[in-house]
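Forum: Protein Structure Q&A
Topic: Joint prediction for protein chains with partners

I've read a bunch of threads here and the consensus seems to be that you should model interacting components together rather than docking separate models afterwards. I'd like to see that in practice. Below is the full input, 460 residues plus whatever partners are listed. Could one of the regulars post the assembled result?
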Amino acid sequence: MGFFQELLHKSRMKSPWLIHFDCGSCNGCDIEVLACLTPVYDVERFGVLNIGNPKHADILVVSGTVNPRNAKVLKNIYDQMPEPKAVIAIGACGTSGGVFREAYNVLGGVDKVIPVDVYVPGCPSKPEAIIDGVVLALEKLKVRKPEKDTEPLVADLKKAREFYENREERQVTG
Amino acid sequence: MDFKTFSFVILAVILAPFAGGLLAGIDRRLTAWFQGRSGPPILQPFYDVIKLLGKDRQVVNYWQIFCVHIYLISSVLCVALFAMQADLLMIFFVMTIGAVFMVVGAMAVPSPYSQLGAQRELIQMLTYEPLLIIVFVGIYLVTGSFKIDDILSYERPIFLMLPLLYLVLTFALTIKLRKSPFDISTSHHAHQEVVRGVLTEYSGPYLAILEIAHWYEIVLILAICGLFWSTSWIGLVLLLALTYMAEIVIDNVTPRMTWKWMLTYVWAVGISLSFFNMALLYANSF
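Posted by a regular:
Agreed with the consensus. Here's the joint model:
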């Protein structure tokens, strides 16, 4: 069992797939995140892929301030990611709200809505700092905490069915 | 079935995913090298799949799970049938069943991205399946049989008689490998277009199973390519290496196209190439 556990932990460390969510950023940090994928920094050598699908992703990278409108979207994306997962807040706005923190429509940093594991400061954050943040988040990914719940598949399916049947009640309108 | 065939089948079924995964790793490494990057380690696809197997499951409905497993079973069965040296047409039908079930699984969920990807996957199947059948018919015209053991016992490489049909087969290979310009259903390289196409709602362990089944399919199509130079090992390895290298280059130099372009281009070029090759065969036989 020990060998497979080791292999799983190693694989989790070696293949973090990112999903990047722009939570109302000025695009400064977003461009720095994309810069990590270019040949200069080439994060793919660490197995990092920029995935557009929260269901496949391991790390949620959020840039920008949170306001009441996009807080729902952010929470939704976070909930769709299967465990183990980690969250990285990028830039001054993502970590604390930055210069917009006093604005009437701003809730603050990303940690007001979802639990954040790594804060990467800077305005904008440097690509090196973002890569460093991803490496720090890997420790969170390595071991699934709390331990995996051993719910039977049938219970999962039943839950999924109820979730689908109640879809109209959950619908956010206006 | 004698012992030799049986052990051959077992060996093929065990080794095929490792070969497919290694091939995918080399592919990613070479692509990175073409783009001036250093790229991930060769074993990266295995890390990805093991990680996905260890993630929590998120199921939408039971159809998804059922379809994923049928896809895996049919891919494994195809490789096993090939190792048993069975009928090419039989292998083709089993492969189609798997592909259809993957589409059914994507259609069974309400997500529009998954649905759109499934439609595109169906059009891709519509594009390559007639061409595969034409290639098999070409092989039949040369060797007089659809059975792989008869094809293998043919004394000359059939590539010499069917060079244009081999080109047609590489179209099917490109589509099956989900390579540009035909990667419209899963957006393999775009990563974000229609989210992930057919793969959108498959997650965690089920995505890993799909990936393993995909490796089996790649090995199968490359094995069918290998039939074209089955007389010598050097010729076989050279042909496969050249083909795969050409696939990677084409993948890197072409943009992704629309389904209309794919359907008209592949059918027009594929069917005319097959026509010329068949005409050549008849001219030779007189």
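Chain A has one domain: 2-147.
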